[in-house]
Amino acid sequence: MAMLAGIKTGSRSMTRKLVQEGLLWKVKRTLKIDYIVIAGAMNEPSEMIALAPGVPRLGAVYPDPAGWFIVKAVDPQQSKAVTVDGKQTMEWIVSVEMDSEIEAVDPVELPPEVSWGSETQEVVCKKDVINNTEVKTALGDPLKLTRPVTIPVLTVSRYYHAVNFSPEIIYSYTNTLNKETFWGAPPKHVLLKNIQGKYSRIELPDGTKQIFFHATFTFKFRREKDSKEPWTAEILHFGKQYKDENGHTLQAFSQPGNTPIEVRLGPNGEKLKDSDDSHYLKFHIYEEMDFTPLAINNTDIFR
Question: Strand, helix or coil at 122?
Fold first, then answer.
């Protein structure tokens, strides 16, 4: 007869999901636990493994410190051959999934949903990242080289009372940078790239009906070592005028022909020689915003 050996270490997990039934919203909790079962014989069928004493039965009520759950699925899977009391038999992992539903007092009080991903971007590589040598030809001419950089992407979703956040307010945060520290990143290192949202008319357990706004935010994090001034634009410094050695502003003309032309400029507007490295101007193209009113910082979620 199959025998319960214990619960697999680290297998217990619980997830929470907001589900709607008519106009009433509830929090659905799913509890998953993996049980280790030793078969009574090498060829014992999976049906008998699932009936091992101590393994929750399908459809049964399971008491847990987090509440009462209903067993929705019992899935036995062979794990490995083992030897018990000198006899060879089979170890099974029985995955048990249980559901429980409780009414949500207020969707705004639910913890935000957080997920992490990544995105690969190309950045200019001016130096060898190991040897620290400049990216140039043997004769000193600069080379155009980029390298891939993986940046973290954070997605956070939560509910708001609609009276507090209109679409104009919410979407004013799009394409802005963090003004304060956000998820541990210093100011101007996190870009709020995208916001998706929808309105819902939700009936609360007390019978009142309210309008809620559900927003999903997508943030991109710039690694500091990849750029001293993240989220800025670089433009080649050139123009039709330049300053001579006496500080006078002159018009650039082609020789011969005296046709107005654009020339490369240095930091102070001087005309660069063909052998000089190009100079780039940097501009901030994203506004800074205080993300505090959104209440989605890690210090808001993990308190």
Answer: strand
Other C-beta atoms lying within 10 Å of the C-beta of residue 131: 7
pLDDT tens-digit series, residues 28-61: 789 999 999 999 999 999 999 999 999 999 999 9
> Other C-beta atoms within 10 Å of 68: how many?
11
3-state secondary structure 208-244: CEEEEEEEEEEEEECCHHHCCCCCEEEEECEECEEEC
What letter does residue 257 receive in the DSSP assignment? T
Each residue's pLDDT tens digit, 169-186: 888 999 999 999 999 999
Q: Are 34 and 11 in contact (CB under 8 A)?
A: yes
Beta-strand pair 176-178/287-289: parallel
Under 8 Å between Cβ of 74 and 93: no
Please state the pTM of the whole predicted model: 0.59
Q: Which two tokens stand for residue 150?
A: 């993986």
